[in-house]
Amino acid sequence: MTISGSEKKRNLFFILSGIFLTNALLAEIVGVKIFSLEKTFGANPVNFELFSGANMSFNLTAGVILWPVVFITTDIINEYFGRKGVKKISFATVAFISYMFIVIFIITKLAPADFWLETNKQGANGDNFNVNFAFNKLFLQSAGIIIGSLIAFLIGQLLDVTVFHYLRRFTGADKIWLRATGSTLVSQLIDSFVVLYIAFILFAPANSKWTYTQLLNVGLMNYMYKFVVAIVLTPLLYLAHWLIDGYLGKEKADELMEEAARSSR
Q: According to its UniProt record, where is this protein located (predicted)?
């Protein structure tokens, strides 16, 4: 059975949206874990002092493993479906993430079954273990972190699509790496600080607010990581374009890109 061009276009948006949404949801869930980038690769923490205050290392939320996939997918959706396509999936993702956190909050309020607590009452070393406390601790995030994450995500997405199409006016269909990587680097610079400011200064309890020095240190360390990853993953954009050209056909793919560019001016 032959698939029409319009159906291929719908299928492409469906697949890209699925990749985008799945990775965004997973990034929010696993984001509660903080890992050491240096120790993961068998190195000692860098203990780099960006500003006066505590030495900083690459202690990152596990979500940074998945967010680059979201950024790349954003640029691909931007390229083929324009500003409207990015906004559509971005607002839908915020709605789904909000729904996810509401469901998690309700689930943590359910009374645990006695046999579940009894079966899991010991840890790997035989120590006392409260599996219900661990479950709630793992999945519940503070309201400040959730709000900060969602606001930063939306600002980052809207800024990304704006910078992307601004750069496309100068690059045309060429220099994919420039508009894609450039828009990601600009949007993530803002995202890196917005989420920390909202979560740890604006909505944080008075006794646990961060100083602006801490904000600058942590924000810049996070951005340094994102900067490097954005550059390293640039070849994936060309791979994605090659796959899409093969699926849609080069002529149809170019037509879709031009249509997206016109609609985003």
A: Cell membrane
